[in-house]
Amino acid sequence: MRSGSSELLLEQQQQQQQQQPLTEEQQRLRKIRELAPKKKNGNRRFRSWRERVRFYSTSTFAFLSVTAGASLLFLVPLYVDPAISTLSHDFIDRPTLCTTTRREDLVGIFNCSWSSCREGCTSDLYRCVHIYVTFIEENITIPLNMTDYTNYTSEWEQSSEATLLVNIKGCGYPPTVTCKKFNGYYGIEGAIYPCFYSRKNKTVVLTTYNHDDQVALIINFFVVPFVITVISSIALCVMHCDCRCKKDRSHRRNRPQCRRPRIENLR
């Protein structure tokens, strides 16, 4: 009996010794978990589909409104303003024939108030080229296969001298405008080529003109960005502002009622 009881006591002591380090380790892990910072995602609130659609649509409309509005600052002076000026001069639709009468290469700010062609519309003019031409005012039809216009122009009466411009502003940017090629081709005295003169101001002549292209420039570079800006701004206003017109009827409620005096009270 004594031997059996002693064995039981030894087994209980061994079990207690085995369980004691486990409990200490568990306490240590529990303290580490308590001291460790909580995850941020635990308190994160998940957005609903409606909130997500509202957020992304707001970002899209804001991006479109800012981008389209800012693009107008660059597109209007570079493309829209020249296109409107070109249409306002009312150039002829069918080309006529021009003949270069003389060319002047000038130097100096005072001598270069204008130029037939210059690369860059904001820089100061120190060197300029003035090309003067005469043209046939009558309505003519130029044959498509004609390459030599010398004999053809001799039959028609020429106009008074006018200025030749690469476009209505007389300036542009490469590669659309290359003044070296322009001056080399049109600046030769006696050169004959198709051109377009203004009906309102016959002293202004262009080498190329297309009415539909000018209208397309105004639509693409002004109307489209302007409409996008307006629609995006209205959408943002509807989504985040109370744009509805409400009539303030509070003054009607507080207005004192004016009663008409009775005849009995006037006596």
TrEMBL record:
Region (Disordered): 1-26
Entry GO terms, CC: plasma membrane
Transmembrane segments annotated in the record for this chain: 55-80, 215-239
Residue ranges with Low complexity bias: 7-24
GO molecular function: sodium channel regulator activity
Keywords from the named record: Membrane, Transmembrane, Transmembrane helix
Superkingdom field: Eukaryota
Record-linked Pfam families: TipE
A biological process from GO: regulation of sodium ion transport
PANTHER family in the cross-refs: TIPE HOMOLOG 1, ISOFORM B, TIPE PROTEIN TEMPERATURE-INDUCED PARALYTIC E
Designated name of the protein: GH14179
Organism: Drosophila grimshawi
